[in-house]
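Hey, sorry to bother you again with one of my protein questions. I've been staring at a protein lately and its backbone has me curious. I owe you a coffee for this, so here goes:
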Amino acid sequence: MWRFAFNHGLWDPCNVQLSHVFRCISTTDQENALKFAYKRDVKSFLAARLLTLYMARRLFGLDPINVNVKRSEYRRPYLEGELDFDFNLSHNGDFTLLTSCHEMRTGVDVMQVELPPASGSVAGFLLKMKSLFAPSEWHLLTSTNCEDGGRIRNFFRLWCLKEAFVKNIGTGLRTDISTVEFDLSGAAPKCTYPGLVDTEWRFEEHQLPNSHVAAVAWYNPGALNKCSDVEPFQELSPNDLLATLSPWNEVKDHFWSAYCFKDMCPPSARRVLY
């Protein structure tokens, strides 16, 4: 099982470095990257591509030109030619994460702990989201033992776990996530869901810098997933990602100016709650 993280929020690529990145991805990906209105979103898009290429190179020795990522019927990504291998991606805030495994299935989600704009208050925000949670989860979110920071953090912990599970099974919006119920009272999260066999699943929680939380769901069908210490995500630098990648594509002359003219991110009223 592999866990890779890239802090794209801290990434400030120069012309030469961004050119290297663009030369490692397809023309379609180059064009799609520059369609985003803000640098923040360009960087998170490219971070996902770079992590995928890094994974393919490190685990399979594939050069970027030979990496072909497909989508399943349920839009789950998979690496063409590697049927017993699975990987998943998530990005939010400053981080892009990738998890991968052999002969298993994985799902990952990351969120920055923050109060969205126009929510008014933590209590008001949570009330709008009540339908997404089982009664026991709602009790945790409204516990009088927690202040606002603890409540919103528990919200994102539960949200990431639910999303990681749904991304693992690949059903997306067709799953009523209020039926995916998590108990956070033990040493590791415990999930209750119709048909779920507890011994086939393992759920992890991770704390990342700058108030980010993440969750990973691992599924090993028909086999006991033995518990072991949770390994942290390996945080990679831009140089780590690019060092072994061989450029193969051309880039258009205007790519740098198209990137530089974008604002970093939209004006935001979000409040990060530690």
